[in-house]
Known about the structure:
This protein is an alpha/beta fold. 28% of the residues lie in helices and 18% in strands.
Amino acid sequence: MTSLLQRTTASFVGQTLAFALPFSSSPLSPPSPLFYNERMELNQPVADFALPDLDAHLHRLNDYRGQIVVINFWSAECPWCERTDAHLRALAHRHAGQMVLLSVAANANEPDDLLCQAAHQRGLPLVLRDPGGGVCDLFGAQTTPHAFVLGPGGILRYRGAVDDVTFRKRLPERWYVQEAVEALLAGQMPFVQETPPYGCAIVRETE
């Protein structure tokens, strides 16, 4: 039986999306990959959603319209997140006013005190909670980290890994999120728009 929290969150997210307006009236329409929610196709507008931060203040995606938004599905315990957090924080600081980093706590089994401690230690400017995993499911997030980059007009321009590190390749040579952000700041499309995510599997609520 689904928990009350899960049912309430799913209903809230559904209502938010039902009344969301696209950021653009003429998005491109490439084929949709198999493993992603149909609403989250590349080069399509991302519908508005709202999530609370660790102090229970609500943040809407529309609040950041006009800036590049990096949505990173995140874990306090995942070592792959810990490895990439400093780079993403520095990227957001370097492009402050033009880019915002939204770290979304994706694991259902991580308590608030653990999230707060990790966010403070790593200097993350904003961590959002996703109770019930509605936004995580909406984006089709698979791992922590799993990054999604939206252009200033709210169009999804990149999704996948933060960098090119894998189990067999421990030192990064490319930082895909940074490449996407810098291309968009230059008024260009990212050269790479999609890569396989790599990290820890997301822990979702069980029925």
